[in-house]
Amino acid sequence: MAELPGVTITGASGRMGQMLIRQVQASDRLRLVGAVERPDHAWVGQDVGAAMGGGDIGIRVTDDAKAAISAADAVIDFTAPAATLDFAAHAAAAGAVHVIGTTGMTDAEIAQLAPFAEKTVIVRAGNMSLGVNLLTQLTRRVAAALDADFDIEIIEAHHNRKVDAPSGTALMLGEAAAAGRGVSLAEVSDRGRDGMTGARRRGDIGFTAIRGGDIVGEHDVMFAADGERIILRHVASDRSVFARGALKAALWGIGRAPGAYDMLDVLGLGDAG
């Protein structure tokens, strides 16, 4: 029987890292071959199963990302922008699929991924869930159907430890709305209102970020006109939806031609809308 494809998880001690490790361990299609943490992290050198509060599973946490990624068919990465760029170089050198769920990357940082996508498969998305990616397509279609008499507002809520705002998902939804209207999000984005801001500018796409408690992720796209509102909504109550999507992306990417992809490609929705 052929050996299952191997996956390395970066940011192993994080909430998403631990969720991903559990999902891979439970999978009958993938196997865990590596767990990476930053140098000097307390988990380095420990068996990752024991570090997570369970029994040993035979995988020790390492700070040698190059070696851990070289041993894998795919790496799943929900970390930070600078770390993601380092991991991208290792994944490209090893020919490993790089699934990126890291948020908060600037346009310049995203552009730095392009040379690596010439050497291996990169699947990057602001959100890995099926529901959110369907919401993205709906947002684009509704925005295309309605003119600027409908103001667009994107309201997102996350836990109080999230460090970036707007969320990667909110920006993904904003891009979809802008694409539906045939405009550039950079030109119509309204991300901050405080004080005497004046009236809302026609055609802008507004963002509101809520941070509190243990909210996993909630996103509303509101189309508001005089006398009526249309609200598209997605609520994630369990972080495992993101992990399952990331595993699906890893499996999809193995054996595929190098390139930059997203979850719409993984789900066969790339040409939709």
Continuous helix count: 11
Kindly report the spatial arrangement of strands forming the biggest sheet: 3-2-1-4-5-6-12
- Total domain modules: 2
At the fourth CATH level, what is the homologous superfamily of the largest domain? NAD(P)-binding Rossmann-like Domain
Strand content: 15-25%
CATH architecture of the largest domain: 3-Layer(aba) Sandwich
Backbone shape: elongated
Gyration radius, in Å: 20 Å
Q: What's the mean pLDDT score?
A: 95
Helix- and strand-based class?
A: alpha/beta
Low-confidence stretches: none
Could you tell me the number of beta strands?
12
Helix content: 25-40%
Which CATH class of the largest domain?
Answer: Alpha Beta
Which topology of the largest domain does CATH recognise?
A: Rossmann fold
Query: How do the helices and strands follow one another from N- to C-terminus?
Result: EHEHEHEHEHHEHEHHEEEEHEH
